[in-house]
C-alpha cells in the first residue's frame, strides 16, 4: 500500500479477539487504525497517527515496539484523533514515543500520553518505574534519548512543584510570595531610584534626559509585567490559601510543613502556569490540609500531572490515570477506583485472547503431528506456516503480565487478654502547650484504632506515651497484663536503620531466630532481588529504605502493633501488602496515619485528637467521614448565622437618629446659602434655602 507521500507500506490484517489483535481478516465494527498496524519500508511515520503509538517503523528494534495489548488499552481509554487534524495540541502537553535508558536499564520504552486543559492526570506505578522521570522530561530538567514533548505553545510556562519545598525560611511570608515577581520588583526598585536621581539632577540636562529616557523604558516594561497589579494578585492568592493580612510579616520558618506547602503552591499559581506538575504533593500533610488541597486544585482550570501514592487523593482529584509498567504507559479514563476496575477488565480480556491463542496453537500442533508424512501432508505444511506466521513480531499474543503478588503475615499471635491498653485521666504537654487534659481511653483485643488530627496536635506523642517512652505529667498509661507485647514502628524508622549493615544483615539482626529462607522470601516480596541482599543500606533510595524498615518491623514479634505513619514513602503495592497483613493480624493495632485509603481498609475505630481530648468514633473510618462532614456542615451553618447577626447589629449601630439627620440637613442648607451669598446670588440662595428647612 502506498501513502500519500509515496511511501510504501505493508498492511498486516488482524482480527480483534477479547480486546487484543488477532491475525486474519478485519472484522466489521473495528476501525482500520485499531485493526491493523502499518509498517514502513523506511524509518518514518505518517503525521497525525504515529503519536498514538499505533504506527511503528520497521527500522525500530523489536524490543522497542509497542505490545498490542498496550496499544489497544491506550486506544480504548482515549478518543481517537480525527482525520485531517495536525499533530499539534490546543492546550496542555503530549509525550510522543519517549525512550530513556538510565543506569544501563531501559526505563521508558516508547511512552506516549497527553493532558489537556481541565484534565488532572495521575501517574501511578511501582517505585522506580520512571514516574518522576517523566515529570522531569516534561519540565526540561532531563532529556529523553528519543521521542518528543509536544507543547501547546512554544513559550509554555510549566511550573514543577517538587517533593522538597522551595522556600527560604529567613524570608517573611510577603517576601516569599513576592519572590515570584523578581523581575517586576527590580523594575519598581529602579523606578524609585531614578525618581530620586531626577530630583538631584535638575541642573545636569544631559543626565536628566538620560534618566527620563530610562524611566520611560521602565514604564513600558512595567505595563508588560503588570507591575501595578502585583500586590493585588498576591493579596488574592494569600486569601485563597488561608493566609491573613497579619501574616505578611511572619517568618516562613514559623510555619508547619503543610503551610509551607501552601506557600509553594501559591507561588506556583502566581506564575499563571500553562501546566502544573505535582510530585507527591500530600507528603507530610495532615488530613485537613490534604482535603483543602483537593478542593483548591479542583477549582483550577490549568492542566495538571500528579505523581502520588495517595489513592484517595487520586480518587478525589484525577480525571485520568496513566500507569507506567515495564517501561510502557497506559491511559485509563477516570479516577483511581475506575482505573483499578478498567485494568481488571483489560487483564481478563488479555487472558481470554491468550487462552484462545494457546488452544489454537495446540490444535495446529496436533494437526501437524497427525498429518505429517501422509497423504494430507499439505495441510500439515499449511499448519506449520500458520504457526511460523503467528510467531512473527506483532502477530503473537504475549502472555499477560501480572506483577508478582506481594504477601506477608505478621508473626502468629498467641492467646492474649481482653484488655490491651488503658489510659486514665491523662494530662500531658510541653511547656505552655497542653496536648492532653484528663483523657480516658480503653483499647481491647482485636481493635484496629486509627488516631487522626492536624499536625502538631500530639498524635505521635500519644504513641510514645503508649510505648512508655514518655511519662505523662499526670494520670496513667498502662498496657494489658496478659501477653501484651508492643511492636513500635516510628515515623522516622527508615532514618534509624544502620547504614553500615547490608540489606540481608539488617533483617537477620532484627530476627536472629527466623529461618534464612523466610527472611530472603520477605525481601523478595519487598522487591529486593538476590543482588540487592548484599547492598549497604547507605546506598538505598528513600523508598527502598522505607520498604526495608517495614520488613524489619514485620519480622519482629508483637501482640500490639503501634505504627506512626507506616505508609510514608511506600508505593501502592507495598501499601496493599501492609493492609492485608494488618487485616490478617490476630492482635490489636494502633496507627497514626493521614492516608485515608489505608485507614478505610484497616481501621475499625477512629480517635480524633481535638481540644486536648480524644473524640471517639466506634464504627470505622467511613463512619468518621460521614459524622465529620455533618459536624462541619453544622458548624459552617452556625458561623453563617452568627455572621448575619453581626452584620445586622453593625448595620443597626450605624443608623443615624432622626434629630441628627435634621441637624445635618439644616447645616448643609446653611453652608449652601453662605456659598451662594459670597457669589452675589442672594436671591437664588434664599430660594434654595427653603429646601433645607
TrEMBL record:
Keywords: ATP-binding, Coiled coil, Nucleotide-binding, Repeat. It comes from the Eukaryota. Pfam families: ABC_tran, ABC_tran_Xtn. PROSITE patterns: ABC_TRANSPORTER_1, ABC_TRANSPORTER_2. Residues 646-693 are annotated as: Disordered. One of its GO terms (molecular function) is ATP hydrolysis activity. InterPro entries: AAA+_ATPase (IPR003593), ABC_tran_Xtn (IPR032781), ABC_transporter-like_ATP-bd (IPR003439), ABC_transporter-like_CS (IPR017871), ABCF_ATPase (IPR051309), P-loop_NTPase (IPR027417). Residues 650-671, 681-693 have a biased composition (Basic residues). Residues 93-351, 421-636 form the ABC transporter domain. Residues 191-218 form a coiled coil. Belongs to the ABC transporter superfamily. ABCF family. EF3 (TC 3.A.1.121) subfamily. This is ABC transporter domain-containing protein. The lineage of its organism: Eukaryota, Viridiplantae, Chlorophyta, core chlorophytes, Ulvophyceae.
